Each structure stands twice: as C-alpha cells, then as structure tokens.
Batch of 2 targets.
Target 1
Amino acid sequence: MSGEGAELERAAAVLAEASEVAIACHVNPDADALGAMLGLAAVLRARGVRVVCAVPNEPRHLPRWAQLLPGADELVRVERFPAAPAVMVTCDCASIDRLAALRPAAERANELIWIDHHRSNDGAGTIRVVDPAASSTCELVVRLADALGAELPTQAAVCLYAGIVTDTGRFQYEATTPETLRIAARLREHPFDHARLAQALYEDRDRAALSLMALALTRLTFEPEADLVWTYLTQADLRKAGVHPAETDELIDLIRTDREADVAAVLKQQWDGRFKVSMRSRGAHDLAAIAARFGGGGHRLAAGYTSAHGPAATIEELVRELRAAPAATASGG
Ligand SMILES: [Mn+2]
C-alpha cells in the first residue's frame, strides 16, 4: 500500500522519542493481536521505554496459549490504562469500536499509531501503519522494529512468531509472501520451543469442546444457491457443555474444508443473545465487502459481523447478499 512506508517511518520516529507508550489490542484477542501488542512491548522495553499493555475485555479472559507469550502476565486492567496517553498504539483493530472499553483512551491519545492489516478499516489513528496485503499485524510490527533499528529480543520473537503462524494459517494463506517466511525464519533463530508453542495454539482442545464441535457438525447445512455451508452454536449449547466460546474458534477451519462450498460460516451466539458470524471463502467472494454491509469487517477471504437475528433469518439475509455480490477478483488479500 503506497504511503505505508512513510507512515512506518513516522511511527518509528515517534516511538524513538517516546519515554512511555500505551499499547492496546482488540477485544477477544487472537494470537496476532496479543502477539503484536506483547511483541512491540518487548521491543520497546528493551530500549528502555516504559510500556503499559491492556486487553479491552472485562472481565479479562485469555485463551490458554496466552500463558506462553512473554509479557501476558504483565497486562494491566482497563482502569489502570492511561486515560489520555501521549503515545498510544493499537494492534490488529479493523475499527475503533474493536477497542471497546479502551476506545476513550484512543480518542484522547495525543499520538495514535494504528497498526493493522484488515482491508475494512475505519481510518482511525494519527499515524496509520495499515497494509491490507500484510500477512499479519505481527509482520507489520517486525517492519516497524526494523524501521526503528531495534533489536528483537527473544520475548518479542516468541510473540510475533505466534501471530504470524496463526494469521497465515500456518503459512498457507495467500498473504504468506517470501518476506513473511524470511521474517518467520528470523524469529525462529531465537531460542524458543516453537513445537510446544504450536501445540498450545493448535492441539490443546478440551474434550467437551470437541463434542460441541461434533454437535455443530450434525447441524451442517449447504445452501447451493449461495455456495455456502454453515452451522451454528447457541449459548445454551455452550453452557450445557461448559465450554468457553473461544474453545470452538477452530470450528470454522473444520467446516471450510467442505469441498463443495466456496463460503463457510459459523454462527455463534454471544452473551447478549446476538450471533457472531465468522466467514471464510476459498476465493470466489469478497467477504470483507459482505461483512461491511452488516456492520462488520475483516479480510477478503476471512471476515465477520454480528447479527441481531436468529440463525435462520441471519442465513436468509446472508444468502441474499452472497447471491447479489459480484464475483470477487483474484487480486489483493
Ligand atoms: Mn490479524
């Protein structure tokens, strides 16, 4: 993206001068969001910068793999986050509302460095390090550290590697470039147990969560006119199984393997009763555009939104949009 290089230099200049930096990531952080935040924090701390990091969730619930990311135990609660930071950085946020309880701090920040790779992005931030072609926000953090001329401490390497591995689907998605692999290789030069990290990220499932995914598979439905396969889980399902919603995040990766459908969707009911819709495409649909029509966002081939309707009405609406959507072009990411 043109201009991203200049913004990268501006961000590096601001961070080079800062004595204190506040960093936030989006609610319900994935490994890219949390990894980018903690990775940048480790880079800045190694340079003597005072860093405060927070996740906007209240109450804070972090997935089990988060304990393998250095710095995760030093997150502060939202109320301890600076109310009007001189320099604030956000990681992996497609829009300012993804900051939830930390949004007021971002709005009052003097300098707001916005690091993100989502295609749908609402333009927040005084400095925008936004590259929709980047594999991950963690890759952008490595570019930023390089622009700073900063060393990557091992603590940072672990966090950034976790984000790159997960956001590239273990180096399989189209945004995985030779540069992504070179950056990952650089991170792997550091002494950390990448195999154990991968197990924590991908092979750490609760048996109740597996059973819940089995239930979701029995509800699998194909909508041929929309090239869509989908399923759903309700709050009652989650409660009955005693499973946290995040434990079923990989359900989408299971149903997207259906060879007959271009689009896969999982509807998961939230605490407030609404359904979170996660979508993936094999390449024939621009899901960022579809999600934006429902007030959501994401990437071309992976996007989501929240629906106030039940599963049937949500899918009816989605089928209508998918059928009306023009075929996606193969460019971009
Ligand atoms: Mn990401």
Target 2
Amino acid sequence: MSRELKVKSILGRGYSCNVFLVKSEENFLVDAGMDMVENVKKKVDGTNIESIVLTHRHIDHVADAERLSTELDATLYAPGKEAKALREGDDRTILSSSFGRSLSPLKIETLDTDIFSCFEVLLTPGHTEGSICLYHEDEKILFSGDTVFANGGAGRTDLPTGNRDELIESIGKLEKLEVDSLYPGHMSVVKEEAEKHIKRSLKNLRMF
Ligand SMILES: [Zn+2]
C-alpha cells in the first residue's frame, strides 16, 4: 500500500512563487522560491527532502534553489531546456536582472519524465519553452507552476521563450485530466473541483 500523500503549501511572499512540500514515497519540494529559505525550512522541519523540482527557470521560482539544495542536502532538478538555461546562468531568460538580481549558474540535474513512481511529469511549454506540471492521477493533484492558476488565470507568454499557442495547447492537455486539487506557482491553491478552474483558464485564453 502506498504511503499517504501530504502536501504542505508555503505561499509566496512578495514576488516569490509558492513552494510546496510533498510527503509521499518520495519527499520533495516543488519550486524553491525567492527569499523564502527560512519559511521553507520551518515547514520542512527536519523531514528528509530528497529532491527539489523546479517547474521552470524564472528567478522567482529558483532564487533560493542553491541554498535550499545545500542546506537540505537535496538534489536539484529542472526539465531539459530549463536546466540548460540555469546551468548557463542565462540571466536574460531567467529574468534575474528584471528583479535586480544575478543568479550564479546552478548545479542542476535534468528532470527525467519518469523520475517519480507516483507523479507524472507533464511537458507544458508556453509560459517558458520547457515548463512542466506534475500530476498525481490517483489523488487527482496537479502542480501547475506558472502554466495555469486558480480562477481562470494562465501564465504570461510575453516573456523570453514564451509562446501563446503552445500555452493554449498545454492547458488543453491539462483540461483533459481529472483534477481536484490545483497547486499553482502563484496565488491561491484550489482544494476541490479544480478542473473547473482549468477549463476557465483555457476559455479565457482562447477568448483574448
Ligand atoms: Zn514564471
């Protein structure tokens, strides 16, 4: 029998994204946030964290990645194109300079799509070229990064490597999933009937 799955939310402060602590067969963090190290460590509270999975390259999701990886002794992962940009410290597409920051090149592993036993890695380009979502089919949970938000929101596509058509296609894939709980990269979490929020996002995006 699989271990009970628990998700703890550490909601973003300031510009930071939300960070999620997932406790299941594997304990991991979804995204790292910006200026959130102490908050995250308080929530982690001694749990052994094996990995930190970054949904995409943007600075508000990755600024704390190196410190958290060191302090929690956890391996950093990002999807292929995002990992490449982070390894190269590509400030322009990471948006570090837009936030008045600079990010040292990260030591980061490429996220294989079959890394987890119970979470599926979904390739959902559009907000950035290599953005991903994580989906748990049995529990109907979706971590959506900056691809889709609560209440019909969707990620920006006017930033480097963004692509509106790709985002529509990606959210179209998400719309077909059974989703109860939505854990997006910003703003509020949805705990029931999250599918409706995703459908609204797609509708809004197609309309405007
Ligand atoms: Zn982003």
